[in-house]
């Protein structure tokens, strides 16, 4: 019997030919050797199922049953791993989902930069070699009030190269309460120490005073450092030394003040219920000599580490050998320049930079978008789920504004069968996947992080997830769905 089942299995080439006839789009989108390997894996799965007695009915090896299973397997396993997802969590800067969504202008600029050659390091005024940084330095100086600027791969790199250039071999005085972990168990003090600087910690976890810094300064001190603890807040008995006060102390001793701003914003979001984040310009104006911040957190641009500050210091950082290792690529540069240009006009930035627009979306706008999403979902899901609107909260994310919740209107989907948890799991396997939240047995979608154009797509994948049978999970062994 088992032998008969083994013999009934089709040959690899027969499977490939059958796929070609029935699934031309899949075959066109999947490189041939990959498709062949997937067919082999699928057939191996069948053989294992036969051996282990899980597959005993020859009907399941007939082309009518086998082919759809094979096609679904190949589509799932052969698709690119890095894909688009729909973010319905309401967390605007979600590191797991790529942080900021780029403005349309930045996307266009990336396409232009990489479709053909560019003047990345070509000075068009002279025809000689130019500098890639010249494309954004003036913009950054205009937007922050700084004398000079440099951009590297990300903010962790910005901290590393700044300290390597200014502090290697010396002591840097920093408040104990500011030595933060930034997620993925990366710790700012570890990055700092890689530069070869020794950290001289002062103050207590909750309080640090001007005299703590002054007492720690000695002949080995090369800089004072402040880390903006944007991802947590101390409430209660707490004190800090302001940028202006610390700059005054640093300059009195002839030392530079370095500020790692983390998020770094060009806009003030206090009117949107997000107070307390200093703008980059205000930190530069308060006297910090070097300020580092991320391109893809509150700024809403591509992943980048932006360093602005005094000309002599930025020149020293530019000459540091790490600059070559940490330099940004042309696509990032294109996206960053386009994003920064939007910030030249504040109102334009609030409208056109998706991160800024999502952070400042008006409650009425969110309610309207939630209503549209709810009616789409009701039409798509019919009697499979109950859909209602509930008030809720969104978060900025990315370690920014940790204690500020933004009011929103959520769409709650309560499946009539199978439960919200199963719906959430199935939505990981739709094309595109949709990520939302679970609360009180409902699956919640927050319209804050969904674009208007994504609403029909969101409704379609939720319907698909409510309709699918189980077994669509890519992590499952082949044949499990048969
Ligand atoms: C996020 C953060 C960083 C790291 O920035 P990346 O751009 O993710 O490398 C460094 N310092 C602080 C304070 C941060 O919040």
From TrEMBL:
The modification N6-(pyridoxal phosphate)lysine is found at residue 297. Keywords: Cytoplasm, Protein biosynthesis, Pyridoxal phosphate, Selenium, Transferase. Pfam families: Se-cys_synth_N (PF12390), SelA (PF03841). It is an enzyme of class 2 (transferase). Pathway: Aminoacyl-tRNA biosynthesis; selenocysteinyl-tRNA(Sec) biosynthesis; selenocysteinyl-tRNA(Sec) from L-seryl-tRNA(Sec) (bacterial route): step 1/1. It is found in: Cytoplasm. The keyword Heme does not apply. Its cofactor is pyridoxal 5'-phosphate. GO terms for molecular function: L-seryl-tRNA(Sec) selenium transferase activity. Residues 6-47 form the L-seryl-tRNA selenium transferase N-terminal domain. Converts seryl-tRNA(Sec) to selenocysteinyl-tRNA(Sec) required for selenoprotein biosynthesis. HAMAP family: SelA. This is L-seryl-tRNA(Sec) selenium transferase. The gene is selA.
């Amino acid at each position: 019997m088992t032998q008969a089942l083994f013999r009934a299995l089709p040959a690899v080439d027969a499977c490939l030919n059958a796929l070609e006839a029935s699934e031309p789009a899949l075959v066109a989108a999947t490189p041939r050797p990959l498709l062949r390997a997937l067919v082999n894996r699928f057939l191996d799965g069948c053989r294992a199922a036969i051996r282990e007695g899980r597959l005993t009915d020859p009907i399941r090896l007939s082309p009518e049953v086998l082919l759809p299973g094979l096609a679904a397997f190949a589509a799932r396993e052969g698709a690119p791993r890095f894909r688009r997802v729909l973010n319905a969590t309401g967390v605007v800067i979600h590191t797991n989902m790529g942080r900021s969504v780029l403005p349309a202008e930045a996307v266009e600029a990336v396409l232009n930069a990489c479709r053909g050659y560019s003047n990345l390091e070509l000075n068009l005024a002279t025809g000689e070699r130019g500098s890639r940084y010249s494309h954004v330095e003036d913009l950054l100086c205009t937007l922050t009030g700084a004398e000079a600027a440099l951009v590297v791969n990300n903010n962790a790199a910005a901290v590393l190269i700044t300290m390597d250039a200014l502090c290697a071999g010396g002591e840097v005085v920093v408040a104990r309460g500011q030595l933060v972990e930034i997620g993925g168990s990366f710790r700012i003090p570890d990055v700092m120490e890689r530069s070869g600087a020794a950290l001289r910690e002062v103050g207590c976890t909750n309080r640090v005073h001007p005299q703590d810094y002054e007492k720690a300064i000695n002949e080995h001190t090369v800089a004072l450092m402040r880390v903006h603890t944007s991802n947590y807040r101390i409430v209660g008995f707490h004190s800090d030394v302001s940028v202006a006060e610390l700059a005054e102390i640093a300059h009195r001793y002839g030392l530079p003040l370095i500020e790692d701003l983390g998020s770094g914003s060009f806009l003030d979001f206090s009117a949107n219920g997000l107070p307390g984040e200093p703008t980059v310009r205000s930190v530069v104006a308060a006297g910090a000599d070097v300020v580092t911040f991320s391109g893809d957190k509150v700024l809403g641009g591509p992943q980048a580490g932006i360093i602005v500050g005094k000309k002599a210091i930025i020149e020293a950082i530019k000459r540091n050998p790490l600059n070559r290792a940490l330099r940004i690529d042309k696509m990032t540069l294109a996206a960053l320049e386009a994003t920064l240009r939007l910030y030249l006009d504040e109102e334009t930035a609030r409208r056109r930079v998706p991160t800024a627009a999502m952070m400042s979306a008006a409650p009425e706008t969110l309610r309207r978008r939630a209503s549209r999403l709810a009616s789409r979902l009701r039409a798509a899901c019919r009697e499979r789920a109950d859909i209602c609107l509930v008030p809720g909260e969104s978060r900025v994310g990315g370690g920014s504004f940790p204690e500020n919740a933004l009011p929103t209107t959520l769409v709650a989907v309560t499946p009539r069968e199978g439960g919200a948890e199963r719906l959430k799991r199935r939505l990981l396997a739709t094309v595109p996947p949709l990520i939302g939240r679970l609360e009180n047995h409902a699956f919640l979608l927050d319209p804050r992080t969904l674009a208007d154009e994504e609403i029909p797509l969101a409704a379609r994948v939720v319907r698909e997830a409510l309709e699918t049978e189980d077994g669509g999970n890519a992590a499952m062994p082949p044949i499990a769905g048969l």
